Amino acid sequence: MQKTIKRKHFAPVAVIILTAVLSACVGGQLGKNNSGQYRNGMVVSANADASLVGLNILKKGGNAVDAAVAVQFALAVVYPNAGNLGGGGFMVYRSASGEINALDFREKAPGLASRDMYLDSAGNPIKEKSLDGHLAAGVPGSVAGMVAAHQKYGKLKWEELVQPSVLLARNGFKITARTAKELNREKERFVKFNPLGTALLKDGLWFEGDVLVQNELANTLEQIRDKGNAGFYEGPVADSLVAEMKRGGGIMSAADLKNYKAVWRKPVVGNYKGYKIITMPPTSSGGIALLQLLKSVEPFPLKRWGLNADSTVQVMVEAERRVYADRATHLGDPDFYKVPQQQLVDAAYNKSRMSSFNWAKASLSSDIKAGLLKTPEHEETTHFSIVDRDGNAVSLTTTLNGSYGSAVLVKGAGFLLNNEMDDFSVKPGAPNMYGLLGGEANAIVPEKRMLSSMTPTIIEQDGKLFMVVGTPGGSTIMTSVFQTILNVIEFDKNMQAAVTAKRFHHQWMPDAVYVEEGALDSAATLELTRKGYHIVPRGAIGRVDAILKTKWGYYQGGADPRGDDKALGW
C-alpha cells in the first residue's frame, strides 16, 4: 500500500496556471523551431487545460509517466464525458533507452456478475441494462493504473501529480462550448440516475464559459493524493461507491474494489515496412487488430495509388472486414481465454485472408467468417500522447465507454461510473452499443476484463522513437489509428495533416463503409458503389492525438480538430 502523504501548502490555481503559461512562452522558445515543432517535450490531449497540466509537469522535471498521471487526473475533472476516475484503460510505454511495457487497467466484471445478467426471460438482450444505471458499471481501474505506472516509472512525488486536478475541481474551470452542449444533452439521464443531485446538473442550461466547480470530486482527489490506491479503493470513497450501488440496485462490492489490480503485460510488437509497431495486447483487441490490418495491406502499393483513392479504400476495407470477423471470435481476456495472438498477427495468415477478395466486386460480410486457426462507445473514450525531454514516451487511452458512462455519479465522491459491462458479449452474436459482435471468448465471467478496442501505440524507426498515437472512437479506434499511421508512412503527411485527414471505417458487421464528409471524392465513391460497397455518410470518426519525432529531433504534434484537443510543447 502506498504511504500516506502529508498535505502541503499549494499556491492558488490561478497562480499555477499563469506560471505555467508564462513558462511555456519563455521556455518554449528555447526548444521551438520556426515550424511550431518542439525539442524538449510535448503533450497532446483532448482538453487544453489537461494538456497544460501535463506540460507544467514536464517543465518541473517530471518524465512522460509523471505527466501522464497528471493529465489522467486532470481529464477526470475537465473532460467528464470520457476522462475518469470511474473507468479504465491501457497504457503503452517506451523509455528513451528502448524499454517497452504495457499496462492494463481495464475494468473488471463485479464478483456477482453472471453470464446472462442482461437477458430477459426469453434470452434476449435488454440493452439499457448494460448501458445505463448502476448495473452497467464494471470495477474501475483508472486509479490503480496511475498508481502502478507511477510506482514503476514515476520521478516526481505523487502528490505533485494529483494536486493540479484537486485545484481544478475545487476552484472550477471554464467549460467549452462542446462540454456545455453535452451537459445539456445529458441532463435527462443525469436527473434519472442521480436523484440526490450532482455538480453536472444546474438550473437552466450550461453555456460556454460557465465555471464548473466539483467539490465532491475534489474531496475524492484529495483522498487519492494523500493515500494513493487506499484513498479510492478503501475508506470513505469506497464506502460512497458501495452505498451508491445499494441505492441504485448495482452489484459492485467493497471486496470488488479492494481486490482490483492493474496488470503489466508484454506489448504486442510487429513490423510494417521496417517500422517497429509497439501496441497493446489483450484485453485490448486493438493492438492485434492494428497489426493484422497493417500486415494485410503491406503487399499493396498504397503510396502509388494515393490517399483515399478507390483502390486504396477497397484494400483497406477488405482488410478491416476480415480483421473484425477475427476479433469477434478469437479475442478476449487472456487471463480467462487462450488468445491465439501469434497466429493472428502472422504475415502469411493475413495474406491468405486477403487472397479471397475480388477486385471486381465487394465481398459480402455474411460470407466472411473468422479465420480457421490451429488452436481454439457515443464513441467517448479519450486518448493522450506524451513525450518528455529525454525521449520517454507514453501512449494512453482511457474511457467510461459511452459518453458520460452509465450517467451515475457516485454521491459523496463526485465521479462518474462507466458502462463498460456492455463491452462484454452480453449474448454471443448480439451486437453491443457500437454494433460489434462477440463470442464465447468475451462472455461475462466474474472478475473478467471485458474486451476493448483501445489501441495506444508507439512506433520506432531504426531503433529510435518515431510516433506516439491513439484515439477514442469505440469500434472505430483501430481503423482510425491504422489510417493515421498510413497517412504518415505511405502518404508523407506531417503529424497534424495525418490527424486532420478525413477517415472511413468498416467493421465487418454491419456491412457498410462509414465515411466522413469529404473523405472520398465523387469518382472514388462512384467506383466503390459500382462494385457493391455500401457507402454510408456519418459524422466525425475518432479524435486522434499523436506526436511525430522528425529526423531533425523535433516533436511535431497532431491534435484532432474534431474536438477541443490541444498540442502543447516546449
Please provide a brief summary of the model.
The chain is an alpha+beta fold and 570 residues long. It has helices spanning 13-31, 48-59, 64-78, 127-131, 142-153, 158-171, 177-185, 187-193, 215-227, 230-233, 235-248, 254-259, 286-297, 302-305, 310-330, 341-344, 347-354, 477-489, 495-500, 522-530, and strands at 42-45, 88-94, 100-105, 173-174, 211-212, 263-265, 268-272, 275-279, 381-387, 393-399, 457-461, 464-469, 504-505, 513-516, 535-538, 545-549, 555-559, 566-569.
Structural features, described:
There is one protein chain. The two termini are 35 Å apart. This protein folds into two domains: 13-264 and 414-442, no CATH class; 266-379 and 454-559, Orthogonal Bundle (Serum Albumin, Chain A, Domain 1), CATH 1.10.246.130. It is globular, with a radius of gyration of 22 Å. The longest helix has 21 residues, at 310-330. It has a seven-stranded antiparallel β-sheet. The protein has a six-stranded antiparallel β-sheet with strand order 7-8-11-12-16-17. The chain has a three-stranded mixed β-sheet with strand order 13-14-15. The chain has helices at residues 13-31, 48-59, 64-78, 127-131, 142-153, 158-171, 177-185, 187-193, 215-227, 230-233, 235-248, 254-259, 286-297, 302-305, 310-330, 341-344, 347-354, 477-489, 495-500, 522-530; strands at residues 42-45, 88-94, 100-105, 173-174, 211-212, 263-265, 268-272, 275-279, 381-387, 393-399, 457-461, 464-469, 504-505, 513-516, 535-538, 545-549, 555-559, 566-569. With 570 residues, the chain is of the alpha+beta class. It has 20 helices and 18 strands.
